[in-house]
Amino acid sequence: MEGNYSSVLLKNVVGELTRLPGIGQKTALRLALHLLKQSPEIAAALGETIIKLRSEIKYCTICNNISDRDICDVCTNPKRDQTTLCIVEDIRDMLAIENTAQFKGVYHILGGIISPVEGIGPSDLSIAPIVDKVDKGNFKEIIMALPATVEGDTTNFYLYKMLKQFNVNISIIARGIPVGDELDYTDEITLGRSILMRQPYQGIKG
User: Fold this and answer.
1) What residues pair up with 117 in beta bridges, in sequence order?
2) Buried b (16+ CB within 10 A) or exposed e, 25-63
3) CB 3.0-4.6 Å disulfide test: which of 88, 111, 151, 185 passes with 93?
4) In sequence order, which residues have a C-beta less than 8 Å from that of residue 140 and are 6 or more positions away?
5) Residue 124: inside a domain, yes or no?
């Protein structure tokens, strides 16, 4: 619904906030009015933080994780198992797995999954760097931790075809996750168990 505002400034803020996912006009108005009640310093700090996030954030040159530096903390951590690679759809999934504290390897973030309906093909994802990484690395296992959806399964199968040439075990997370679910909506216990109970990937069975 279109709001009637007594201030163009307020209307503009509400309009910008509704650009955020899951934020409707009522929520945006509530947030804007909340900010008006705060001190100018708090509002300024919020604005400056968002600007710095957008202008200074980096993406890890190794795994595509969000980072303050060229290489993220996960990739530079000497305690991580550099022989186990977990492939995820996006950064939210990586964070969800990290929160389970059950995975000690490293990651590769695809930046999406194959979805012909949305016009997303293999060339639109960070797949080629995975092949190069596995070819040049010393990985013993690759875990495909993608959503339990048709698109996720299609991406799993494509990755398997690209990686089966290498001498590395390829596994998939256990399907304790309901079909159709996204990883970042799965509770930590279920997701953690799915990582621990992963199984060898055998392709799509007809």
Assistant:
1) none
2) eeebbeebeeeeeeeeeeeeeeeeeeeeeeeeeebbebb
3) 88
4) 83, 84, 168, 169
5) yes
Of 60, 93, 91, residue with least CA distance to 77: 60
Residues ≥6 apart with Cβ < 8 Å to 175: 148, 194
Q: What is the mean pLDDT of residues 131-143?
A: 93
47 & 120 share domain: no
| 8-state DSSP, 142 | E
The pTM of this model reads 0.77
Give the three-class secondary structure for 154.
helix
Contact in structure between 69 and 61 (CB atoms under 8 Å): no
* Overall number of domains in the chain: 2
